[in-house]
Amino acid sequence: MPNERTIARGGKRKIGLALSSGMARGWAHIGVLRALKKLGFEFDIITGCSVGALVGGCYLAGKLDELEEWAMSLNKRKIVSYLDMRLRSGGLIGGEKLMGEMLKYMGHVNIEDLPVPYAAMTTDLVTGHEIWLQKGDLAEAMRASFSLPGIFPPVKIENRWLADGALVCPLPVAACRALGADMVIAVNLNADIIGKSRKVGATIPTAAGFDLMQLLEETDQKSKMSLMDSVTRRVFRRDYDGPSIFGVMTSSLNIMQDRITRSRLAGDPPDVHIAPRLGHFGLLEFDRTEEAIHEGEAAVMRKRPELADAMQVLSQSNAVVGANEPI
């Protein structure tokens, strides 16, 4: 087995990294990137969807440490504090507080200034087309990529209303290849969610990890709110024993991401498929950062033999290309 710091070495062929959607499971991408870096991997192209676009963009912008620090500070109450309810918009949550936090840590970075090509997957709400954002403000592209319909309002970029890329492309392997990658490593956060994520008899609201509406109500009782905020939250108060609105949405998202990803991978599989075991994670459990990061690192280590084999094939290909180049 090659030394873990020398598995990957520079060459003429390009290595691409595709990072999937997955909401709170996305913090596992941080662990994956840390582990791949330890193995010596450097990427020539990165594509990401939703939280994958967020983590991949922060990595290329040199802000992964800042993202990890912020993610490690999250708890349920802090998560709720970022949720600026906006009924008269395209989503329940305005997203301005989250955007402000992103800019606080990142500042304004243009995609064109990143060291390697990057694309954030989004969905055109009018045409349903898959839109790859490869230029412009990085934070705005990230926001568009994770703007889950019904939760966050869509983002208008170049006269298009764009929403979460997970609607059409949860794991952008094809985009990575189209941008020139000869070998693609894909990180799929939604590989074990259907039929594995919950215990027998569990209710749909637990797909989120916790009932967000109930947490909002508890927060209301412990803090002073404006009359409008109080009325807004009571509109969504649950007075029955069925699934909450967030429980239904997150369960539906689980199913959609799983089915679309399977279909896309069948037609264009990656060279190495890394699948962290995150079925026990709720999609809104953003406070489980440390556990998610560790599982991301562990997932890479489980794939070390496959990664080494892929790099050997790529190195041999590089040698052939180098031998055929004119002197």
Description:
The chain is of the alpha/beta class and 327 residues long. Helices cover 43% and strands 11% of the residues. It has twelve helices and eight strands. The protein has helices at 28-38, 51-60, 64-72, 76-81, 96-106, 138-145, 173-178, 212-222, 227-235, 245-267, 289-302, 304-324, and strands at residues 15-19, 45-49, 118-124, 130-133, 155-157, 160-164, 183-187, 272-274. Strands 1, 2, 3, 4, 5, 6, 7 and 8 form an eight-stranded mixed β-sheet that branches. Strand 3 (118-124) and strand 4 (130-133) form a beta hairpin. Helix 1 crosses helix 11 and helix 2 (51-60) packs antiparallel against helix 6 (138-145). The radius of gyration is 20 Å and the shape is globular.
What topology emerges from the helices and strands here?
Layout: E1 15-19, H1 28-38, E2 45-49, H2 51-60, H3 64-72, H4 76-81, H5 96-106, E3 118-124, E4 130-133, H6 138-145, E5 155-157, E6 160-164, H7 173-178, E7 183-187, H8 212-222, H9 227-235, H10 245-267, E8 272-274, H11 289-302, H12 304-324
Helix pairs in contact: 1-11, 2-6
